[in-house]
Design a protein that fits this description.
The protein has 159 residues and is α+β, with helices and mostly antiparallel strands. 32% of the residues lie in helices and 18% in strands. A hairpin with a 2-residue loop joins β2 and β3.
């Protein structure tokens, strides 16, 4: 369920399927994968237009960082975890345990992984860069195949 303060949405075509983006008065509030068929939407919202442009550049390997203001909706704990995710550089991965340590609570691995699963802004908050401690791919709410695609796009050696 989306908060009532969203003021615009946009469907964006990507190499890994359609995504729906939403912005509120503070920035990009959500970006999620869509597996169902929907009618294409257009938007005149400058943030969403810029988001579509930056995503296209990312998928063309012309962009490694995003410049948009983000406004994810979640608990204080979740927002802290999502900020920690944003510190993982393009082309790198960390384990869930390492992420929990960077977050400042090494014993909270499961809670951190749960917050990752609730990340409302895919790709820009790069939860796809978190893998299992043993080097396995781990989970991804957008589907493992999308996570593998994103890791491959960023040329991350998963071995």
């Amino acid at each position: 369920m989306q908060p009532n303060n969203f003021y615009d949405t946009l469907i964006i075509n990507t190499p890994i399927g359609k995504m729906i983006a939403a912005a509120d008065e503070h920035g990009i509030a959500s970006l999620d994968f869509m597996d169902e068929t929907v009618d294409q939407t257009s938007s005149e919202n400058p943030l969403l237009i810029r988001l579509e442009q930056e995503l296209n550049e990312y998928f063309e390997k012309k962009r490694q960082t995003f410049t948009l203001p983000l406004s994810p909706h979640g608990t204080v704990f979740q927002k802290g975890v999502w900020e920690t995710l944003r510190t993982i550089p393009y082309g790198e991965t960390v384990s869930y345990a390492t992420e929990a340590k960077r977050f400042g609570n090494p014993k909270a691995v499961r809670a951190v992984a749960s917050a990752n699963a609730r990340n409302p802004i895919a790709i820009l908050i790069p939860c796809h860069r978190v893998i299992a401690t043993g080097g396995g791919i781990g989970g991804y709410s957008g589907g493992i195949w999308r996570k593998e695609f994103l890791l491959d796009l960023e040329k991350i050696n998963q071995a």
